[in-house]
Amino acid sequence: METDLRLVFALFAIPFGLFFGWPLVRRWLGEDDWLTASIATFGLSLGALSLWMFALSLVPRALSVWSILTLPAAVVVMTLAMGGRALAQGRRGAGTTLKSLTPDPSSIIPLLGVALPLAIITVNVLYYPFYYPDTLSRYGLFARRIFETRGLPESVQGYPLLVSLGYAWAFFAGGAVNDRLAGIVSAAFCAATIGVTFTLAREMYGRRAALAAAFLAATSTLFVVWGTSGYVDIPTGFFFALSALFAFRWLEGGPARNLWLAGLSSGLAIWTKQAGFIIVPSLVGVTVMSVLYPRGTGAADQRLSVPISLPLRDAARAGLIFIATITLVAGPWYLRNYLLSGPAAILPLPGSFYEAQADRRLVALFSFVTRPEEWGWTFALLGLFGLLYSLLEAVAGQWIGGTPEGRRRALFLLA
Predict the structure, then answer these.
(1) Where in the chain are the domains?
(2) List of residues 6+ apart from 289 with CB closer than 8 A
(3) How far is CA 217 from CA 58, 145, 206, in A?
(4) pLDDT tens digits, residue range 50-86?
(5) What Cα–Cα distance (Å) separates residue 31 from each residue in 28, 121, 213, 222, 366?
(6) Closest alpha carbon to 20 in 89, 72, 74, 77
(7) pLDDT in tens, 140-164
(8) Quick check: pTM over 0.85?
(9) What 3-state DSSP class applies to 42?
(10) In whole angstroms, what separates CA 96 from the centre of its chain?
(11) Residue 136 DSSP code
């Protein structure tokens, strides 16, 4: 009986830990729709929860389900202290957007194509325990050690912890190591990744392109394989796309909060996997674009009507915010690695087995070219076409009838 009650508690507590920031995030985003608010809430809530758990873990045996819940509880109290206005605003926004999400006949097939792979992934991660070698030997193992020691033993170092702490949260909520409960976190990441793919494509190219992007992503072989593995590649990709969404909104003339959200999402990508550092050149590209294409003006030929001091100021502000947020979010973990094991441990290197498998050719940057079978041939061919078209539009858009706006968006995608 006690076990059953704990399971029921876990089934409520785990999603609560993943979405507790909804009222505040919804209020902060202002007029953003329900879908955008949901994916942002998930990313920021889990990010905040993982950082809170990391802070607690530095105190011996301080981690417990109740100590972890103090942060979500504080957010709830803060919301109530605000008189429920954030919740009311969230409900109004959700109702309006849910009506707009009602599928029209032309979108039923793409939506079914999205729902089926997500259902397959969800059934797999909730039914089967972890099976992927790197999940068992790193991220799942780290989660187990954190749960069993109620802290952060020195053996847990090197690889970033956001996903491991998400799994550990599921263990604490359930009162035992339970890979199936941890699968709730994996399933949420998969759904959120498709959601942010849809939202980013809709922002840039409209609803039809968004449906196509979500359909192609969800039905790609690679997404389904990694989605059922419990590994960290999909979570990292989610934060990449979330950062891109808010960076694009800022470049389009959106408020400064988009800069902070882009920076926080980038920091969380690096807190998820050290490969997340590859987002840094993209952020540099965003700051450069804010000078070449002054925010909200559209084409580069309009920059002459904008005082150069304004885009330079925007670029400087963007750079400082990106540095500050990434350092704040991911810096403590890499500092701990340094303090425990010295400079060589800041960014741990893969073993010789993985080094031997690495493809060091330049073309390997485009895996849908070198390994199309992993993506599925449809996705691989469309991905190759999209890449080539973006390159052509960015470099010689006037030759193919492109527009300045199209060139700007192609440059953003390439960044």
Answers:
(1) 239-343, 363-415
(2) 251, 408, 411, 412, 415
(3) 38, 34, 17
(4) 999 999 999 999 999 999 999 999 998 988 887 655 5
(5) 9, 32, 24, 34, 36
(6) 72
(7) 999 999 999 999 999 999 899 999 9
(8) yes
(9) helix
(10) 25
(11) I
